[in-house]
């Protein structure tokens, strides 16, 4: 029987804070995912009193639901970044992608966070020969900005990494890794608590109200049962940002669901025969699949956008299963043990952003790439709160944009789902045409 909850949540330690939420703090952080906890850690270490409030159980959001793929990279190409922001900022965007991976890997290693970190590499697999050519060109441009440990894999060498004939080569990111996302979140939570942060679940923030300039308090933060007075506020709500909390932010962040399945235990030998390289895998096709072995090495986990709009995991399961079998036909009879969903937070610029609106700071917009980037930007957000006049990251120069008629409820996503089906057809047509030429 498939369970419709995250595989990662099975048998994990829980933290509940039964203390009363303090009435005063230097800083209130809304959202207790990687961003909020990382910011809380840095701020507490700097001697600030910090209260982190989450609407649900601590870690309810994407931070304990994701695929656990730890990597760098953005959703826009070097050329797009160059066109939009100019050469200097485009270069910094790439450099900080690398910096985010180094930051989070070090955070885990230096603090001995027990989260089953493996530096297993990530292979981006080419759906068409053209994708392989474009990846190769983009890699050259990125390396010219700042060298990093990544190489193209020729099609004939792909069997060393994966047992499928679906792909036309790939790009291997050697320093990328994999974690158990729940354990990483729990480890980060323990670090923040040990540094002095106070973290509370079941504390939905309904309003953040600026207090008059004459007062020594900056804001009042309202939850269902208390009010916290503080000097500064950081919004760390990413894909869970809703208009009821911030009209401004929710107009700028799209909550896009992603869906994941995990097979039942199929044994280490079978997993290794399907994924002999042991890498995390991500495809180039528009509705891309990402997949990996679970940390025990006995199951395969696969995620994709079964739909762009929100559907239930029960509805998503057939699409996910179909995509798994397309990659690994031998898994046709294998039972799916878990299927679940969570919200990624997409910005219209397709880049993360750290900024401030009416005195309230925010760090979000990871576009599905937050395992390394969210702890990094949370840390940078903390530095910004400590020293507002200094620029701490290039993502202060990638402002959040909005679109007409978007007020935080993405009514158009079911149309986008239909467009994605069109992309699937196009991707498959391009593939078939390339196969005929071979
Ligand atoms: C299914 C899935 C797979 C993914 N896979 C990967 C991957 O393999 N690699 C990768 O790099 N990234 C991945 N991501 C993205 C990554 O998980 C996120 O970018 C990252 O976890 C964002 O962290 P966060 O702390 O900013 O937000 P979240 O972890 O989403 O936390 C936001 C929190 O804000 C809280 N909140 C919202 N509103 C309020 C309110 N009014 N009051 C109080 N609290 C509130 C929510 O309850 C939530 O807990 C994936 C995401 C999903 C959903």
Number of domains: 1
Helix fraction bin: 25-40%
Q: If you compute it from the alpha carbons, what radius of gyration comes out, rounded to the nearest whole angstrom?
A: 22 Å
Q: Please give the number of β-strands.
A: 18
CATH level 1 class label:
Alpha Beta
**How would you spell out the order of helices and strands?**
EHEEHHEHEEEHEEEEHEHEEEHEEEHH
N-to-C terminal Cα separation, in Å?
42 Å
3D structure, described in words:
The protein has helices at 34-45, 78-85, 87-110, 129-145, 181-194, 247-250, 268-274, 313-327, 370-386, 413-437; strands at 24-30, 50-53, 69-70, 122-125, 150-153, 170-173, 177-178, 198-200, 205-210, 219-223, 227-235, 253-263, 280-283, 290-293, 300-304, 336-347, 353-357, 360-364. With 438 residues, the protein is α/β, with parallel strands linked by helices. It has one domain (7-437): FAD/NAD(P)-binding domain (3-Layer(bba) Sandwich), CATH 3.50.50. Strands 1, 2, 8, 9, 10, 11, 17 and 18 form an eight-stranded mixed beta sheet that branches. β9 (205-210) and β10 form a beta hairpin. α2 crosses α3. The mean pLDDT is 94. The structure holds flavin-adenine dinucleotide. Residues 30-36, 53-56, 60-63, 65-69, 204-205, 236-240, 242, 245, 258, 260, 303, 342-344, 364, 366, 368-371, 374 line the site of flavin-adenine dinucleotide.
